[in-house]
Structures are given as structure tokens and as C-alpha cells.
Fold this sequence. Notes:
Blueprint: H1 9-20, H2 22-33, H3 42-58, H4 98-104, H5 109-119, H6 125-139, E1 145-149, H7 156-167, E2 173-178, H8 181-185, E3 191-192, H9 193-197, H10 216-223, E4 224-230, H11 237-251, H12 253-256, E5 260-265, H13 279-284, H14 291-295, E6 298-301, H15 306-313, H16 317-335, H17 341-351, H18 360-366, H19 388-391, H20 410-417, H21 429-436, H22 445-458, E7 464-467, H23 485-489, E8 500-503
Parallel strand pairs: 1-5, 1-6, 2-3, 2-4, 4-5
Antiparallel strand pairs: 7-8
Amino acid sequence: MDLNSPADVPDFLKKHYTALSEDMTYRLSARQAQGLDLDATEYDLRRIVLLDIEKQVRARNSRLQDHQILIPAARVGEVREALKVRGEAPPPARRAGGKALAEQLPGNWDELLAAAAHRVPTLQLAQNVVWDAASESIDGSTAKLLFLDAPGGAENKYLAETLLKYSRESCHIGLAVASSAIAATLMPLGRTAHSRFKIPIEINQTSFCGFTQSTEVAKMLKKTKMIVRDEASMAHRHCFEAVDRSIVDVMGPEVASQISRLVCGDFLQVPAVVTKGSIAQIIRASLGKSPLMLSRFMRMQLPTNMRVKTRADAGQAEEANLVEAFGKWLSAIGDGDIRSAVVLQAEESARGTPAQGLDLEKDLRAALPLAAGQRGARRRSPRPGSTAVEQWTTKIRIPRAMCLPKGSGMQELLKSVFPEMSLVNPTNAAALDPMGERMILATVNKDIIDLDEVDIDQVPGEALTYCSIDTVNDEDIEFAEVYTTEFLNTIYHSSVPTHAMVLKVGMTVMLFRNLAAQNGDCNGIR
């Protein structure tokens, strides 16, 4: 500046500041990706850029102050560490876990705490009981282990999000994990438990997770105040025990005792999968049979169906009654109290009830137990040669209002599920939203392919065909004779789409793979 100084140095700096700060901006971004300088702002970046320029002009006996340019004062970060953005970011191998730690340590602590405080008055009575116990555990020196028995509609995710926001204030971490990728994406910064804690696929009663003291998981656990785990009841108890065993082994009993845990689940839903396992083996694999659950966890419940309450408060009494009946019907199936199809059929035959004409709510309530705790149907003596499943299975009746008339085909099925399909405007996103909330499940791929062919003809618009890659790449050219194009085009597997996928604008697409779970692009998303 002193050799060829422009007439207006502040204006010159303003015009070229972006170019002058490009290198420092890159260095700061790289360091933040490694978990450093997370509190740095544009103010700090400008200070470092001007200090670098000051160093250059001082070598020529000049100063920025002589040109009416002031260098911002130094600032201390919110984590009470001096902000240093001059150095290059260390290589990832030397700072393992920095990026993951940076993701879990957002800088808007005040906003998170304010959001949690705003939600607390909206919690219901049962939710408040859980909130008091969990928040007291977060604030205290000794953590609590809570299991939240939350059936469908209990809004446990709303409560879990509130606790996560509360636990993430003051530079702490609230880890959100779930047993499935779909549930993980519904939680802030959620990940699957297997991904977060490196749970081994082949697991037994002595397994450990794949993280050590030098890994990113250990770095996060040092700052973690609470771990929220959703859909825990559908995971094998060995997965749950392996995480607890690994935290104590790697972090030490003292650190492990300071991490609160909120485990959410519903034992009436899908149990843990045991390949070719008997009923006894499936029960033993349940989280409810874990010594941790029996001896260390405090069990709490959310009995209120918030879907019913929300509709009742909105004056939608008829819909609220239907949702309530459906929820009780599902609970009766899970509890084993549902009345069997044989008993219902016998009662209707005795009364002379017509086979048609019952609405859905009446049909659902008719299958509920007559009195609290009453078993639905007496199980007959096991037949010789019958399997354990047959001995302990009660046949239930699907409500007739949910079934199509006998002899209905795919056209009738599509029209009953998507009645507006042929009339919807593909360019109207609001009109397409209700269609995206419904789906048809089938047990075999052939039925899905047949439904898709009928579906394409019903949706208005021009059809586009997307073909899969059906040639072997150059690196595996030796397999070209085995995996021919014709063979690849005929593969029909449950985990991959067909070779030729025909789509129209407005159609719903479901992913088969976790493409980017943090962005919501995961298996099963629509």
C-alpha cells in the first residue's frame, strides 16, 4: 500500500476484501470441519485477515491505522478458548471425530434453550412427569436411566426433541439414535444406533462396540449429557447391552454414570428379529428381558393418545372416536385380548347381524374385549403335530370396512386407496401431498410390478422410462460373459427396482438405500 497506495484505501479494501480473505476463509472452514474454532464468526475472520495485511504493510514501514482502518479487538470463544484461525487444519487422522463433534455442537445455545422452554408449557401431564425426571437428571451430577413405554400416538418424539434441545445447551451434546433410519431422520441430528456406536452385525452376550478412546464416538461421549434412543424395543437386547458395556469400558464408570439415557419403545410393536428362532428365543431377545432394563432403568409411561386428543380439541369428534377405536384395537391385538374371528362370527350368526353394513368404528369396537383383562378367545388344546406358533395364535378378523368386496381386482384396489389419482393435477404440490401419505404393501414383487403397470395408466401426464445400468464396467470385464445385459435386465429382487422404471410427474418414489441419512434420504423414505 505504501508503494502504490490507492486514493481511498478503505474503499479499496471493501471492494477486494472477498479476494483478500479467501485463503483465511478456507483455513477457517477446514478447521471447523475438524471440530476447531466452532465459535468463530465473521468478526473474528476479519480480524485475522487484517492482522495478516498489517504484517505485510508493516514490513514497508506503514500501518493500516494510517489509512483509517482499525483492526477488531481479540475475542474469546464461548467455549473459553482463544480463537486461533491462523494455522492450517490438522489432518483428519490426527483429529479423529472432529467433524462429527462439530455437527453435534451447534453454536446457537440460547436459541435451543429458549425453544425447549417454549415447549415445556405445551407438554401433557404424563409428559411433564417424564420431563421433570429427565431434566433433573441432565442438571444433576448423577444421571438417571429412563425407559419410556410409549405406544403409537403418544408423541414421545416431541418430548424427546424437547429434552435434546435442553441437553444441548452450554456446550453439551444430546445424542439422538434410533433402531431404524426412518426414525433417526425424524430426530434432530439423529443417526441409527448401529452407525453411531459401531454396533457389530454379528452380536452376542459378550460383544463390544467398535469405538475406542481415540475415536469420534468417545470424543462426543465426553461432552454428552443425554442419549435418547427411539424404537429400542425392536432391537435385540444384546445391541443395547453392548452399547452400555462399551461406554463403561471405554469412558470409565465415572463418565458413564454422568450420561443420562432416555430409551423409548413399545413392546406391543415389532419384536427383535431372531433368525429361525422359537417363541422362547424371541422373548429372551427382547429388551424387556435384559438385566439392565430389569435392575437399572426406571420405567415410565405415556398413556394418552395425542392423535385422539388433538382431533377432539379441534372439534373433530367423529374422527377422534375412530382413531381412538383403532388405537384400542391395535393395543388389544398386542395384549392378546382381541376377540377371535370365530367368536365374532358365532355372535353375529346368533344375532342375525348382516354381513355388510357395519361401519369401521363399530367393527373395531366389536372386536375389543368385553371387560378389562378378559381374554378374547379361549385357546383350544394344541393339535398333535402343530407348531408353537400355531398353538399360541388367535385368528383375528380384519374390520370388514377395511376390506374390498370379494372379487375386486387391482383397479378397485387402486381406486379405493387413491380415489383422486386420475383427476389430480401433477403440478399441484398441495394436491399431491395426500397421495404421498398412503401406500399399498404387497408380499411378492410380481404384485407390485402388476400394480405399477395399472397405476401408470391411471396417472395423467407423459410417462418417462428410466433404465438401470446393465453392463459390466471395464474393471470387471472378466464377468461380462456371466452377467450379460439380458441377465441383468431380468433381475427382480426386493432390494432393487426393476431394470426399466416408468414414472410420471407427481408419482411417489421410495428409496431402497440410505443415500444421505442426515439429509433425510434413507431407506424407506418417500
